[in-house]
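hi! just following up on the protien thing from before. the input was this:
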Amino acid sequence: MNLDSLTIQHSVAVVFFIAFAAAVGSFINVVVYRLPRMLMAADDPKAYADQLPLSLALPKSHCPACQQSLAAWHLIPVVSWLLLRGRCHFCHAAVSARYPIVELSCILLGLFLLKQFGFTWPTIAWCGFSWALVAIVCIDWEHGILPDEITYPLLWSGLLVNASLELVPLNDAVIGAVSGYGMLWILFWSFKLITGKEGLGYGDFKLLAALGGWLGWQTLPSLLTLAAALGLLTALGLRLFDKIRLDQAIPFGPFLAVAAWVLLWLRDSFVFF
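and the predicted 3d structure came back as:
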């Protein structure tokens, strides 16, 4: 097989990978929109009694404003949103820019990991990790919840991946999962005993446990420090522009996820990774 054939095959593989990443991003948008509503409906069935039951598969994709079912060409990742200029084809209601942003994020994260690891099993593993974090960022930022339906599978999959692929040593992953949960549990109760307020949610414990299970215990100090710094800077910026009240809390999960991506990006710069 000559060099030109190999180059063509590689290019085709990359195109298929981009298409797959875009499709994953489209599915993540479904999860971000539907999963929180499914959980809220389960917690308070009476409040949602007059609405159609939601699952991740049914009903078909539709416009939340006019309830019209969407055609296939309305659902092409990124492209459809641009063609429709960010509006519903039927009622012209605005469609959130979150949809193309999520899809593009999945593509870019996938390409970064593909460049780092090539067409290998670690690429598949890190893509699954990164794409799950995209869903977590969006759900926590929009709804202030970190669903067990995502954090628990992320935790167990991290331990299983490290048991088979050893992205980090399994011992480090197990200690990371336990330490991640324990560190925020101690912080939560210390803050509550001192102030009488809850500064974190239990979802944050589970998310940091999952990140420790993927990245190993050695990354946790850097991860927490970076997440706290990002959260503080964001809160100050939002307060400066009067986007939040002085006493208003913001979700911590998105900053944990971003910090994890940064450490993954800088993995070669850390001797413990």
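The radius of gyration is 20 Å.
Residues 120-273 form one domain.
cheers
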